[in-house]
Amino acid sequence: MRDLRIYTGMCLFFLLFACGKSKTPDPVPPAPPPAASFSFNALKVDGVSSGFTYVNVSSAPSIKLSFLAAVNRNSVTNALTIRDRSGSLAPAAITYENNDSTIVVSPGLNAIQKYTLSVTTALKSTKGGNLQSGVDVTLTTAIDPNDKFPAISDDALLDLIQKQTFKYFYDFGHPTSGLARERNSSADIVTTGGSGFGIMAMVVGVNRGFISRADGLARMQKIVGFLKTKAATFHGAFPHWLNGATGAVQPFSAQDNGADLVETAYLVQGLLTARQYFSGAGADETTLRADINTIYNNVEWDWFRQGNQNVLYWHWSPSNAWAINMKITGWNEALIVYALAASSPTHSIPKEVYDNGWAINGGMKNGNTYYGVKLPLGIAQGGPLFFEHYSFLGINPTGLTDAYANYEEQTKAHTLINYNYCVANPNNNNGYSANCWGLTASDIENGYTASSPTNDVGVISPTAAISSLPYTPTQSMAAIRFFYYKLGDKLWGTYGFYDAFNLTNPWFANSYLAIDQGPEIVMIENYRTGLLWNLFMSCPEIKTGMKGLGFTSPNL
User: Fold this and answer.
1) Beta-carbon neighbour count of residue 39 at 10 Å?
2) What share of the chain has pLDDT > 90, as a percent?
3) Strands (DSSP E) along 360-479, which ranges?
4) Which domains does the chain have, with CATH numbers?
5) Which residues lie closer than 8 Å to 86 by C-beta, 6 or more apart?
């Protein structure tokens, strides 16, 4: 009996054990391994492999991106994009080669723009793997080689540039004062120096028949009347900027809220040129000349010696006095200041102020050779080209010499160094060439700078080459043709050439600046006829004053 119970219990135990075991779930099969990621292999743009940056790309390039696996076509749309700098998508056709391991991208791009082609890790292989690392390709498109305007003669082109640029000063002149607005985005801010350039442009406009003599005289009467009766002055000198409606000072900076002797000199240079042009015996022109004389004679050039020092000072402020404390010393754009100061009938300076202050007793000499050209005066490699423009809108450098330099050689040498630097292009800026050159002060993208061989940010300003036409006629004319015919769709507008452009990181200004537009029309005219040079150098005060400083010239 006892054995039977033992047997029965063992059977029950095994039965329960068997039942429990049958309730255990079947084991879950292991997950399949993830698809292997894959990587980028090679890139070619129009058959050329050159890393991930390409310049002078055609507007319809063939871009081949190769990978170490066949790609899933359905993933390409979201993973591959081409965008310009504004973020806009560029259209592109996609095809495939090498059993889908090569994506062939055929976009339609605009000329002279920078694009980024991006492939993200959302790109998948046909086996489901993702691209290990994204790919970014920078593409800068080339200049469209087609002419943007019908061909015309060089003379006709210079006529067109002068006429179009003239509109900046006549059509866009401030309605109350007639003075030149600082830039095309200015409302009431007018520029003293730029207005001097604009007055000289007005003379060109009348002489070339862009406007009548009566209209030119009326505009000059408005300008001179405003300067004489409304414009703020300090010891006869004008500020850098004025309010064109009220004549009040528009501060150039926190401390620069008073006299600017250099800007005043540019204004007086223009006024004296106009005085010599409007030489008629009638009452209107006679009165205009008398008013210009009053403005010139009121400038206390000698007071800006700051206590009879043998140098002139650039600024004075009614609230900050001589705080800026900037001496006007050479070589830069300010030779005209000393010429006018020495020539003043009422507040002249003696020769020692010129010698010790401006010429630094010879310290402004250079004498070194840059890019095969010996530079008589100034800083290394010459500096920005406006040094050879602003003072020489009126002062004729042809055959002009003094104890320190031959100024015909100086102006040509500086310009050739600037030109040769751009041709040599040591910074490898895209687009620099014998047809595309000229470094001077201008707008840059999101700012302003004085470009030069020692401050080269990749920006060319048309005024640099155009305003150098009297010095380098062949090189400047080649640049003018290039700017107009090849870049004209982006560079030519209502008031002539826009201020500047960059072909390395493509950008074109939409701005016009009076101090850049004025030298273009004036120096084109000096190249063609010598009109402004002849007028300014005919001033009896200038003849006497410059001779007194030791200058000799067939024009004095």
Assistant:
1) 12
2) 94
3) 369-370, 373-374, 441-444, 447-450, 459-460
4) 40-141 (2.60.40.1220), 154-548 (1.50.10.140)
5) none
User: What number of residues does the chain have?
Assistant: 556
Residue 60 pLDDT more than 60?
yes
- Binned at pLDDT 50, 70 and 90, residue 3 comes out as very low
Structure tokens at 251: 């501060």
Q: What is d(CA 537, CA 546) in angstroms, rounded to the nearest whole number? A: 10
Contact criterion met (CB below 8 Å) for 330 and 359? yes
Q: What is the pLDDT of residue 1?
A: 42
Segment 300-304 shows an average pLDDT of 98
Distance between CA atoms of residues 391 and 387, nearest Å: 8
How far apart are the C-alpha atoms of 267 and 180, rounded to whole Å? 11
Q: Look at residue 81 and tell me whether its pLDDT is greater than 80.
A: yes
Contact 512, 498 (CB under 8 A): yes
Please report how many Cα atoms fall inside a 13 Å half-sphere around the Cα of residue 190, on the Cβ side.
Answer: 31
DSSP characters for 457-504? -SEE-HHHHHTTTTT-HHHHHHHHHIIIIITHHHHEETTEE-S-EETT
Return the pLDDT at 34: 74
pTM of the model: 0.92
Give ∠ CA 185-189-193 in degrees, rounded to 5. Answer: 105
Residues 300, 230 contacting (CB under 8 angstroms): no
